[in-house]
Design brief:
alpha/beta, Glutaredoxin, 2 domains, six-stranded mixed β-sheet, 16 helices
Length: 429
């Protein structure tokens, strides 16, 4: 059986070699699939009118009458591509049925777009999965070509204004995407371009304002400079708070190791020398943990050069405090493959100022076995020598206090700042 280290190297190689699409319009928190030129083309299709004439090229229909542009007017629509002989896509239409039931009262229309081949028997397969929404045979696969469908299941979501809102949605984000278009009004959908543009403008203003109050913001153009690393005694005498467990007993010293490769985006490791290290765990399929990503990204921008924030993507089992072991190798590789795809989708759709790494074995960041280990939102704060000085829930007030305390006491931070000030003075700045 392959080792976790070998598995990590395989996954990291895939992450490092993948091409990422440019950041486009606001993602609205919905993960997309695809990369490279295809993803760029899909991004260009989003937030534009869906070509409703494509329905005319669809041949056979089941579970309802043929779709028309008039029927779509003012209605949210989900299209799921599938093939009756391909199990992953059959599971996708079963999941789409749950979404169809959930948002039926909001008028959501779901269509299962079957491949042009082997239509006979497809309705029986769908019926066996409890599917009651409309099924369509893309007879000549013209709609598939127009939508750049490359691997079933691909999911496309149309809003009440008739716009292709989300192109090739990650299956894990189907419910979220359907909720967005089902719960908003037609008026709001029609104004979504202006809304997202204003949201982006406000986020830019916010980022600029946080940078303006950051005393280290003027150092962003300073290169990485050499400086004498503080001695172990300097860290021991820095006055870091002792970590204790729930019983008040002092915790044993833990260290945070920084892997040299496997980073997103671009396989470039974070600059950590002379910086407080902040690592948090998350999983794109666990919303409460995924919600940390933007907060942590803002923290990286706010604290400028004094911190190195990185997200660690782990399996759901690791995130829940359980074991990272699997029943068998096939299960292990299946979950890791899905997690890799979702992580790549997130990196494709977001422009982050901090880095992400992938740790399916859950060995990079470890936590003492107490209540903090059971939280789905967990982080550690380590001094620049890698020694963990705090662990817990990053949503708590104590997290920010721990970051502030570590930055103010860290000998490495002080040594790096001194080198930077010397560099600036030498240039008359």
């Amino acid at each position: 059986m392959r080792t976790s280290a070998h598995l990590r190297s395989i996954v990291c190689a895939g992450l490092c070699l993948a091409s990422f699409a440019a950041f486009g319009q606001g993602t609205e928190g919905v993960l997309r699939e695809g990369s490279g030129a295809r993803r760029t083309a899909l991004n260009a299709m989003e937030l534009k009118p869906f070509p409703s004439d494509l329905w005319a090229g669809v041949g056979a229909w089941a579970n309802g009458t043929p779709m028309t542009s008039g029927e779509m007017s003012g209605k949210p629509v989900v299209i799921v591509s599938w093939q009756s002989w391909y199990d992953p896509s059959v599971r996708a239409i079963a999941a789409a049925q749950r979404v169809a039931d959930q948002f039926a009262s909001d008028g959501l229309i779901v269509v299962g777009l079957h491949d042009g081949q082997e239509w006979e028997g497809a309705t029986d397969v769908a019926k066996g999965k409890g599917v009651t929404f409309r099924l369509a045979q893309d007879t000549d696969n013209k709609m598939r070509a127009a939508l750049m469908i490359d691997q079933d299941p691909d999911i496309y979501v149309i809003d009440r204004a008739g716009q292709l809102r989300f192109a090739d949605v990650d299956a894990a984000a189907l419910e979220q995407a359907a909720r967005i278009v089902s719960k908003e009004t037609a008026e709001a959908a029609a104004k979504i371009n202006e809304t997202l543009a204003e949201r982006a403008r406000q986020e830019k203003i916010k980022a600029q304002s946080t940078a303006a109050i950051n005393p280290q913001a003027d150092l962003t153009s300073v290169p990485e400079l050499p400086f004498p690393e503080p001695s172990p005694e300097a860290y021991a005498n820095a006055g870091f708070a002792k970590m204790t467990d729930s019983q008040g007993r002092e915790e044993s010293v833990a260290t945070l190791a920084i892997p040299p490769e496997g980073w997103l985006p671009g396989n470039k490791a974070p600059a950590t020398k002379g910086r407080v290290l902040i690592a948090y765990l998350w999983n794109p399929d666990v919303p409460v943990s995924a919600s940390l990503v933007k907060d942590m990204d803002l923290l990286q921008r706010e604290r400028g050069r004094d911190v190195a924030v990185f997200g660690v993507v782990v399996t759901r089992g690791v995130l829940s405090g359980g074991s990272s072991s699997f029943q068998n190798e096939a299960d292990q590789f299946q979950e890791v493959e899905l997690l890799t795809r979702r992580t790549l989708a997130y990196a494709t759709s977001n422009n982050l100022s901090h880095v992400i790494t992938f740790d399916p074995s859950g060995t990079l960041v470890t936590f003492p076995s107490n209540s903090a280990n059971q939280s789905a939102t967990r982080a550690v704060v380590a001094s620049s020598d890698g020694v963990v000085r705090w662990y817990g829930d990053p949503r708590s007030a104590s997290f920010r206090a721990a970051v502030d305390s570590a930055v103010s006491r860290d000998p490495g931070v002080r040594a790096r700042r001194a080198a930077e000030q010397t560099w600036l003075k030498s240039r008359g700045k």
